[in-house]
Design brief:
Blueprint (H helix, E strand, L loop, with lengths): L7 H25 L1 H14 L5 H50 L2 H6 L2 H19 L1 H23 L2 H7 L3 H38 L1 H6 L3 H53 L5 H42 L21 E9 L6 E10 L4 E6 L5 H8 L7 E6 L2 E2 L5 H6 L1 E4 L10 H5 L9 H10 L3 H6 L17 H13 L5 E5 L7 H14 L4 E5 L3 H4 L4 E6 L2 E6 L1 H7 L2 H17 L1
Parallel strand pairs: 3-8, 3-9, 6-7, 7-8
Antiparallel strand pairs: 1-2, 1-4, 4-5, 9-10
Helix pairs in contact: 1-3, 1-6, 2-3, 2-11, 3-5, 5-6, 5-8, 5-11, 6-7, 6-11, 8-10, 8-11, 10-11, 15-17
The chain binds adenosine-5'-triphosphate.
The site of adenosine-5'-triphosphate has 13 residues, from helix 12.
């Protein structure tokens, strides 16, 4: 039960709904117990020749009335208990989603999206079933067992009731043995489903790569393997559930045999009336269902508990990057950035991605970071945004250690254009205005689009800024995506703008226009440009050249050329490339 402790807030909020539902359930159960009594009266009247038309009508009316009452009552307990379990589904999904959002980026490097999706769907469903259907069955079966036993003793005698209960201990043993196996197998089934969701998600996210490399067969066979594995694990579960239920049904129905034998004898010996015997059998019929329900409850609870275990693992995960107890908010940010002896290793990596990095950018100045692929350029941006924390050294924003700033304040003041330029399946306007909680003025959106030189492309689309992007709409070209991402960062009017290789798909003419636009709006702000192209960064106030995570060269474009180092080499190679292309 401690597995479900995570849901205590939900239960304390919803306890009244559950209580009302349970009360309705108990009322209906009690009404159900009247039905065998009606049969008993009817049989006894019949046996005593007291059954006339009026009596038959009375019994028909009574049966009808109990039928209606049961139907109405069932409606209410369904609404209160099953309705509340739907609320639980909503609550739990939101809790998982909100918690995942609070986790640091590294969590998502080590956990597959498909797996997380499976938790939010199948596992949440299994918990809902346990809390909804499971609760109904446990309350229902316990109450029915107790009341039915009382009615059985009252209708006949304690001896016959004990005989009817002969099978109960066997049921308890079978239930506990099977329960453990079901728990284990259901966990395995859920893991297999996670793998299935994962491969489906990955195959279709990468469908363009799959098609262009003509690897449909490879993906198909991978899917087939996982699908097959999922089938096998489900069949293992079905086998155990398939043995469990008939077994329980068989054991519980043995009671009927015993009662027909012993009860029949008591009728012959006139110890009980025929009416009593029929009512007793009806009660036994009522008892079989709760006994079987106990079996189902165990099955459903074990599945729910297995899924809750899996969900708890996510909910217990703590974010690596959190606010300090006392955080500072940036009041009037200037955008000064300083790296002091910063060294950093990615989690689970033995090598330093950055080693002893030192630089400082004053307000209104620009810094360029250049270097071979994998030299650590993007890592500098990630550290400044506190997507990771450096193991050594300090990073200062306006002379405050970024670990002392609130994450919100720090990130709100940085306009980041990431390398992957991810855009959501929303309208272009919504993508550009992504940093605003409320809809922002279209004038701001248009202005940002003009500054990033994507405006003319957007207005050419039939729906302009209202064009929907992604799976449900238009696919932008690489350059259009990059410029839309730049607009998304510029609209924030950030104190620090980071362009991470954000002009690589833009032609040099457009690049120049964008850089000129930036010069005017960023004159009092800080710009960090990460690039492979020297044409993008040559006008920056300082350029640092990274090599294997270390600053190998630094200076202005002119001073670096005089250095005769790797930078000059790179510049000459790029000039040569340009010449070849232009010829
Ligand atoms: N999440 C991560 N976990 C482990 N290692 C990582 C991670 N991200 C990057 N690295 C490694 O850190 C090093 C620096 O990566 P980084 O992305 O900063 O390079 P970069 O200079 O920006 O490269 P590029 O020009 O290709 O974008 C690389 O060796 C890379 O493999």
């Amino acid at each position: 039960m401690s597995t479900f402790f995570t849901l205590k807030d939900f239960f304390s909020k919803q306890k009244w709904n559950y209580l009302i539902g349970v009360i309705w359930l108990l009322i209906i159960d009690s009404i159900q117990l009247i039905v065998p009594q009606i049969f008993r009266w009817l049989t006894n009247d019949f046996q005593n020749n007291a059954l006339n038309n009026k009596a038959i009508l009375k019994y028909v009316f009574l049966i009808l009335l109990t039928g209606i009452a049961i139907a109405v009552g069932r409606f209410f307990w369904r609404i209160y208990i099953l309705g509340t379990s739907r609320e639980l589904e909503y609550y739990l999904r939101k809790k998982i989603f909100d918690h995942l959002l609070s986790l640091s980026p590294n969590y998502f490097n080590t956990h597959k999206t498909g797996d997380l999706m499976a938790h939010a769907t199948n596992d949440v469903n299994a918990v809902r079933m346990a809390i909804g259907q499971g609760t109904i069955m446990i309350v229902d079966s316990m109450f029915m067992i107790v009341l039915t036993l009382i009615m059985m003793v009252k209708t006949t005698n304690i001896r016959l009731t004990f005989i009817a209960l002969f099978t109960l201990p066997f049921i308890v043993i079978v239930v506990s043995k099977f329960g453990k196996i079901i728990h284990k197998r259901f966990k395995i089934v859920q893991e297999a489903f996670s793998d299935l969701t994962d491969i489906t998600q990955e195959s279709f996210s990468g469908v363009r790569v799959v098609k262009s490399f003509v690897q449909e067969n490879l993906i198909q066979s991978k899917f087939e393997k996982v699908n097959n594995d999922n089938l096998k694990k489900n069949l293992d579960l079905v086998k155990i559930s398939g043995t469990f239920h008939p077994f329980i049904e068989f054991i519980s129905s043995l009671s009927f045999l015993l009662i027909i034998f012993y009860g029949g004898k008591e009728v012959i010996l006139n110890k009980i009336s025929l009416g009593d015997f029929i009512a007793f059998n009806s009660y036994l019929g009522l008892l079989v269902w709760p006994m079987m329900a106990l079996g189902w409850v165990i099955n459903i609870f074990q599945r729910g508990a297995a899924s809750m275990d899996r969900i708890n693992i996510i909910l217990e995960e703590t974010p690596d990057i959190v606010n300090n107890p006392k955080t500072i908010e940036l009041e009037q940010p200037k955008g000064q950035v300083q790296f002091k002896n910063v060294s950093f290793k990615y989690p689970d990596s033995d090598n330093y991605a950055l080693k002893n990095i030192n630089f400082s950018i004053e307000q209104g100045k620009s810094l360029a970071i250049i270097g071979r692929t994998g030299s650590g350029k993007s890592t500098i941006a990630s550290l400044l945004l506190r997507l990771y924390d450096a193991q050594d050294g300090n990073i200062l924003f306006d002379n405050i250690d970024i670990k002392d700033l609130s994450l919100k304040s720090l990130r709100e003041n940085i306009g980041y254009v990431p390398q992957d330029n991810f855009l959501f399946s929303n309208t272009i306007a919504e993508n550009i205005a992504f940093s605003f909680d409320k809809p922002t003025s279209s004038e701001k959106v248009v202005n940002a689009a003009k500054l990033s030189e994507v405006y003319n492309n957007i207005i050419e689309f039939e729906n302009g800024f209202e064009t929907i992007l992604g799976e449900r709409g238009v696919t932008l070209s690489g350059g259009q995506k990059q410029r839309t991402s730049i607009a998304r960062a510029l609209i924030k009017e950030p104190s620090v703008l980071i362009l991470d290789d954000s002009l690589s798909s833009v032609d040099t003419e457009t690049e120049e226009k964008i850089l000129n636009n930036l010069k005017t709006i960023m004159d009092t702000k800080t710009t960090i440009i990460i690039s492979h192209r020297i044409s993008t960064i040559k006008d920056c106030d300082e350029i640092i050249l990274l090599s294997n995570g270390e600053i190998a060269e630094r200076g202005t474009h002119e001073s670096l050329l005089l250095n005769n180092g790797f930078y000059k080499n790179l510049y000459e190679n790029q000039l040569l490339e340009e010449k070849i292309i232009n010829n």
